[in-house]
Amino acid sequence: MIEVKDTLQNQVPNVTFKNVSFSWPGKKELVINNCSFSINKSGLWMIVGKNGSGKSTLLKLINGLLKPSNGVISNLANVGMVFQNPDHQILMPNCRSELLLNINKKLSRKDITNKINFALNKVGLDGFDKRPIHTLSGGQKQRLTIACSLISDKNFVLLDEPTALLDSNSQLKVLDIIKNLTNNKRNPFTALWITHRLEELSYSDAVAEMKNGSLSDWEKPLNFHYN
Ligand SMILES: Nc1ncnc2c1ncn2[C@@H]1O[C@H](COP(=O)(O)OP(=O)(O)OP(=O)(O)O)[C@@H](O)[C@H]1O
Ligand SMILES: [Mg+2]
After folding, report:
1. Separation of 52 CA from ligand 2 center, angstroms?
2. With a 6 A CB cut-off, is 53 part of the ligand 1 pocket?
3. Closest to 122 in 3D by CA, of 45, 200, 13, 7
4. How confident is the model at residue 8 (pLDDT cuts 50, 70, 90)?
5. Cβ-contact 5, 187 below 8 angstroms
6. Per DSSP, which regions of the chain are E strands?
7. DSSP letter string over 139-157?
8. Distance 72 CA to ligand 1 centre (A)
9. In this structure, how many other beta carbons lie within 10 angstroms of the beta carbon of residue 90?
10. Could you give all domains of the chain from N- to C-terminal order, each with its CATH number?
11. Residue 196: nearest ligand to its CA?
12. DSSP assignment, residue 72?
């Protein structure tokens, strides 16, 4: 039997960009331009930036969907993704089958059930395993996509404006869940959260701005100024 506490991978990710540039095929303009930064501590990291400044492109470079045109990316992390619209991400008809898609199939039935219950509990969806997806609210669907990252033992989750479609109640729930996961000292968990909602920044451990194709230095939210 696995220990349920081991279901969050007990490792801190280490992601480093060194002078990374990227342009989309057929375009001259560098969307990412000589960008350098690292994320090597657990916690909640946030990025803000104007529309089209390259935030989503940066996430695709981190998770390896895109390759840099120049520079070096080193990525020691098990990366999961949460998108703005959970309907673009959820594939299966109910919570259990969606979670099963993401789980290590070699586990015993009992361990699988334990992990499903653990992941649902962590995102405040106790007892939702048999629930059809179409009966979930937007916030509940978003929490399910976070549970999918947990159940597949990701240690670094990239969230691309995960609360943009949510009302303020659901927004806070999702933010609280991620905050609690990243605060857990025994099972360090790391999240990189992209947002346009400036009121969310105070939850972060570090904030940076995407501007002119590059990421600013990480700042504590109290010291961070955005204009
Ligand atoms: N698949 C693609 N092919 C070509 N160009 C793209 C593609 N995806 C994005 N771009 C361009 O790359 C630039 C950066 O886009 P990106 O989506 O990374 O910005 P963003 O900061 O995430 O914006 P938003 O806040 O609106 O989500 C934009 O000019 C966009 O048009
Ligand atoms: Mg984007």
Report:
1. 7
2. yes
3. 7
4. very low
5. yes
6. 14-22, 32-39, 43-49, 70-76, 79-82, 156-160, 190-194, 206-211, 214-215
7. HHHHHHHHHHHHHTT-SEE
8. 21
9. 19
10. 4-223 (3.40.50.300)
11. 1
12. E
Mutate to test the pocket of ligand 1, among 22, 46, 47, 57 (most ligand atoms within 8 A of CB): 57
Is the overall model pTM greater than 0.90, yes or no? yes
Local confidence band at 2 (pLDDT 50, 70, 90 cut-offs): very low
Ligand 1 centroid–CA 176 distance in Å is: 28
Per-residue pLDDT of 35-52, as tens digits, reads 999 999 999 999 999 999
Q: Check pLDDT > 50 for residue 7.
A: no
Query: What values do phi and psi take at 116, rounded to 5?
Result: -60, -45
How many Å lie between the centroid of ligand 1 and the Cα of residue 24? 9
Q: Which atom of ligand 1 is nearest to the CA of 57?
A: 18
How does pLDDT run across 102-158, given as a tens digit for each residue? 998 899 999 999 999 999 999 999 999 999 999 999 999 999 999 999 999 899 999
